[in-house]
Amino acid sequence: MSMATTASNRLLLALTLSIVVVGAAAAAPPAAAAPPSAFRRVYAFGDSFTDTGNTRSTTGPYSFGYVSSPPYGATFFHRSTNRYSDGRLVVDFLAEALNLPSFLPPYLSLSNASAAAADGGGGVNFAVAGSTAIEHDFFARNNLSLDITPQSIMTQLAWFDDHLRKANESSKVVGDALFWVGEIGANDYAYTVIARDTIPTKLVRTMAVQRITTFVEGLLERGAKYVMVQGLPLTGCLTLAMTLARPDDRDNVSCVASVNRQSYAHNRRLLAALHQLRRRHPDAVIAYADYYAAHLAVMRSPAAYGFTEPFRACCGSGGGDYNFDLFATCGSPAVNTACAQPARYVNWDGVHMTEAMYKVVAGMFFHAGDAYCRPAFSDLLARKAQGKP
User: Fold this and answer.
1) Which residues are the signal sequence here (predicted)?
2) Among the four 158, 185, 248, 379, which has the fewest Cβ within 10 Å?
3) Beta 42-45 vs 123-125: how paired, if at all?
4) Which residues, at least 6 apart from 24, have a Cβ–Cβ distance to it below 8 Å?
5) What is the per-residue pLDDT for 57?
6) In what helix (H) or strand (E) does residue 172 lie, and over which residues does it extend?
């Protein structure tokens, strides 16, 4: 992407830090509930694509710090729940597919007393908006720290350890749970926008995937037997990227080619790393949820999935092709309403997706065999029911 000034570079970085890192066709049948014996607990990790409330307006990434205000949450919850969307996220549709008693509560909302109750009620969500794969200190040492959302994926692992202590959970509980690792890493690449010479993209890719691999292995060492890991979506199809990139930097789905190539390269390296983890841990199931392929399928044929607006932000300002203004984003005093039909839009606020898009992606992950999830989600459930990791 090209920016005119250092100031705009820094603004892009701050905005991109809120990316957290994108189903079945619109006519597909509703999700069938999994057998109650499949998974009674889910532990979720990631960034704003998975965060169900660990971030609030006062702690969110700059220019996307209005998540506690309307119209966030308007479609499903009819109020803000500090999710970066108009409604449910993919992890919420996972909770519904597994017939959990409730959506996953955010870790930071739990007291010591409620930790055990939450764990018994379906699990906990540790994802936090703006989170990176690489530890925050790395960026601080390179003078690129904004101290907005300094948590990394390893911060979330420390939170998980703290939760296990508070809830006094056993290794058997950990082994019976499903671990959902939402997309993570897009925020790391944001730093390369203003520091390509200092922190080359290739270095960030190597370090980010290594940290994700270390995180997943940490879960396995703590007794996890069933893990689902998401790749990056088409980050070049987000409204923010479309707005700031050069007009000639486009691919065959009219998205930002250079940014999508970056996500594709990241996912290839992540897949290779997961393959090595499977070899080292044959007693565990490590599934890969292909966000990139799912997002690409929608962008190639948006109408087939019910979308008429693949690029414009539903909740934004400025009109035009993208309805996105860096200085007047969703939930800010200037933008307290959204489009009339969010279900027709892929993009919600310029960086995050609508509930409708998350529902489509969830359908692809959970009900499309091994086309977008490998091994297939149904196979993972069957193996859990049989007690065979």
Assistant:
1) 1-27
2) 248
3) parallel
4) 360, 363, 364, 367, 368
5) 61
6) helix 171-176
Distance from C-alpha of 120 to C-alpha of 118, rounded to nearest angstrom: 5
Identity of the residue numbered 80: S
Active site (annotated) includes residue 48: yes
Q: How far apart are CA 378 and CA 38, in angstroms?
A: 10
For 19, the token pair is: 């990316």
For domain 6-382, give the CATH number.
3.40.50.1110
What is the spatial distance between Cα 103 and Cα 371, in angstroms, rounded to a whole number? 26
3-state secondary structure of 271: helix
- Tokens, residue 118: 């939450």
- Along the chain (389 residues), what's the average pLDDT of each consecutive run of 10 residues? 38 38 31 61 97 78 76 97 97 96 94 60 92 89 69 95 88 92 92 73 95 98 97 97 95 97 98 98 97 98 98 96 94 96 98 97 97 97 87
Separation of alpha carbons 254 and 271, rounded Å = 26
Cα–Cα dist 102/384, whole Å: 21
- With a threshold of 0.85, does the pTM exceed it? yes
Find the catalytic residue in 48, 63, 131, 152: 48
* Token representation of residue 202: 């290739």
Of the candidates 163, 188, 349, 367, the residue annotated as catalytic is 349
Q: Reduced to 3 states, what is the DSSP secondary structure of residue 310?
A: strand
Per the listing, tokens 């003078």 go with 143
